[in-house]
Amino acid sequence: MPAPVPPAVFLGVRHHSPACARLVAHTIRTLRPAFVLVEGPADMNDRLGELLLGHTLPVAVFSHYRDDERVATSWTPLCDYSPEWVALREGHAAGAEVRFVDLPAWHPAVAERTDRYANRYADAEARYAEATRRLCAHFAVDSVDALWDGLFEVTEPDDDPQRLHARLDAYFDLVRGDAEADDGDRAREEYMASWVRAALARTGDRPVLVVTGGFHQPALRALSARQADAAAPADWPAVPEPPDGALGGSFLVPYSFRQLDAFAGYQSGMPSPGYYQRLWEAGPTAAGRHLLRAVTERLRDSRIPLSTADLIAARSLSQGLAGLRGHPYETRVDVLDGLAGALISDDLDRPLPWTTRDGLGAGTHPVVAEMVAACTGEALGRLHPDTPLPPLVHDVATHLAHLGLADADAPVTLDLTKEEGLARSRALHRLRVLGIPGFTRVSGPADGADPVFTEVWEPRPATASREAALIEAGAYGARLDEAAAALLGERMRAAGKEIGTLAGLLFDAVLCGVGPLCAGLLAALAAQVKQAGDLGPLGEALSATLGLWRHDRVFGAARDRSLGAVVGGAADRVFWLAEGLHGGPGVDLSALRALAAARDALRHAPGLLSVTPESAAGSAARISRDPHAPAGLRGAAFGLRWALGVPDDPAPVVQALAAAAVDSLGDWLTGLFVVAREEVTHGTAAEEHSLIDVLDGVVSALPEADFLVGLPALRQAFAFFPPRERERIAERLLQRRGLRGSARSLLRTPADPLLLARARALEENVTRLLDRHGLGPSPVDGAVPAPHPEAVR
Q1: Across-strand partners of 72?
Q2: Spatial CA neighbour of 601 closest among 535, 642, 653, 545
């Protein structure tokens, strides 16, 4: 007489496990349950029919939530061998009532998991890994994946499903052990148990099947048993609704094996989806052979040498490892270890990825990379044409068709001075901000001050990733402009006090034509520049907003009052911070550019600043004489006075710097040239020649060793001059010596000037050594000192 069937059967599974998926299918076919309860978002229960439309898997339920304080997105991915997908399909075929029984993805109990792992089916056992660590040590395997394959995926051909069920129960009981669930897991388990209780109250002769992650199964069984004697609920548990003012929802999106793969960052519990798809379809023997063949094809397509002898060796190693490890068939790790042993002769600087589940980093051995790619597979999901889509998808299609961009197959050139070109530009920038592939911007204005009035965009072929990106972007709004504004607003809130990030977002908002958001960004920037403590980001914000304030007639932001408030506040703050900045050697180019931006604000928008040119010149004088200020900043302050029309005599400054530390002279010049390069090269001849003459005299008098020390900093300084201006400086050097010749030839050398200088120093040392021993020529009196052209190259 068969044993009585319990009213509730709990199947703990590992997500995306073919063995668990087979057990679920077998259990449903033999048990014929009245209800199949599945771990999944309960707010999708009214739309389960969408999942059965006939999609090409993998697909995922994309869930989103947004309010004033929190943004959460998650994916519930499903592939052919996902136990949850099999439970849904087989349960429906068996006439059972199928329900998702977990909390919605937006709920904080789930969002704690999805914010961290980006998907609902992140393995809970990874958070309680002590038991699996002990099991790995006991079975002498490197990873939980290898442990799982040996225990469950690659088993004896006549393995009884009941024995597999018992082994899974024992495994998950051990993994869960006495671990106390955190608040999120506890809330989810109590909610799922309430569904079990409601189903038990409704079932008659047929049992209830509960399919959840194995980590939750022991707790659900215990919670359901404790509630068995309680009064039966009258209705199914209520599905929580988002609070008032919040936006949330779920849509199906196409997915890919690459997105499913643990080696690409997905914490699904099962890596290598391509391998497990073949294991699901054809069994372990065929899966191992297919993996060997797939690796071979990828290596040969990549022109990596691979001989028949190598393949024979790999096959022999894989079979030997499987026998040594007690596996009836070759597991995934057996095949990969065999391939690695036969094909890789180099020393590896990191463990093989399938032993740690680490992602592939820079410098990964090419054979390893191809092996991992072969395991991943290339499957792309596709939604059934009748699948409901968010309004944004239809809005974008209509919008692009109206603008003539829907079928673009050649580069699109836009004239931003015309209304049509500006409208098309804004639509494409909104798509870019939302991360929707399809067009790539090739050229266009880089900032508000860039005198470029055309853009060029190149279309890209439509792919499944574009459809998925559009559906996911639907979380931000029903219209393209609304969605772009919402995403930029989210980034603005995330930026907080990061002034440089806010400035970058401002230009994006201008390009997208998001007017109200621009006002919010400007208000945030105006508040933050008054508190800024770092010159670099402050200078970025000042430069960006000043450029928009001065030039942005195309996008409609020129002379905007809110922009002007940011410009004035940022420029005032630059002078306040610069005067108190102290530091050691080296050049902070971002701080120097901040002073250059403040110079531009004084020149082009003096009415916006509370600092006058006279007070700015006084501040610059104090900075330039401050011995504790960085040399680069002192040079920039000196240049600022020059730019403001009150230049100082450079001779004592240059001589003092060279006497103190020759490398600080190069730093000082870098600051000077960042702020006053035009004044140096286009000022009066007397001013230009005065500086060059002083520098030439100081540099020519340097001992060779000191010159070599200071040469890198000097070259960095003169790199701010374009070639034509460097040629003018070289001409002045020749004139000073009464020499005739091509100044351009001084700037063109067959080798790196640093190498030439070192070679010259070596020659000088050899000459001195010869002189010491009386072997050198007698010196020629009255020789003119040679110039150091390396410093200006």
Answers
A1: 65
A2: 545
Give the C-alpha separation, 636 to 539, whole Å. 14
Q: Are 526 and 569 in contact (CB under 8 A)?
A: yes
Structure tokens at 83: 């136990």
The mean predicted confidence, pLDDT, of the chain is 83
- Cβ-in-10-Å burial (0-12, 13-18, 19+) of 235 comes to exposed
**CA 766 to CA 760: how far, in whole Å?**
10
Which tokens in the block code for residue 476?
């931000």
Residue 685: predicted pLDDT: 52
If one compares 647 and 179, the residue with the highest pLDDT of the two is 647
Distance CA 49, CA 118 (A): 25
Distance (Å, rounded) from C-alpha 679 to C-alpha 693?
16
CB neighbours of 470 closer than 8 A, spacing ≥ 6?
392, 393, 396, 436
Contact assessment for residue 681 and residue 725, using Cβ atoms and an 8 Å cutoff: yes
Query: At 787, phi and psi to the nearest 5?
Result: -70, 165
Q: What angle do CA 98, 12, 262 make, to 5 degrees?
A: 100
Q: For 200-246, where are the E strands, in sequence order?
A: 208-213
**Alpha-helix runs per DSSP H in 325-376:** 332-343, 353-356, 366-376
Highest mean pLDDT: which of 253-262, 422-431, 581-590, 759-768?
422-431
DSSP string, 546-586: HHHHHHTTTTT-TT-HHHHHHHHHHHHHHHHHHHT----SS
Of 24, 7, 30, give the one whose Cα is nearest residue 206.
Answer: 7
**pTM as predicted:** 0.74
How far is 640 from 71, CA to CA, in rounded Å?
A: 46
CA–CA separation, 614 and 76 (whole Å): 64
Q: Which two tokens stand for residue 354?
A: 């399938």
The conformation of residue 610, written as its DSSP 8-state character, comes to S
What is the phi/psi pair of residue 715, to 5°? -65, -40
> How do residues 154-205 score in pLDDT, each as one tens digit?
876 566 888 899 999 998 888 877 666 778 888 899 999 999 989 988 877 8
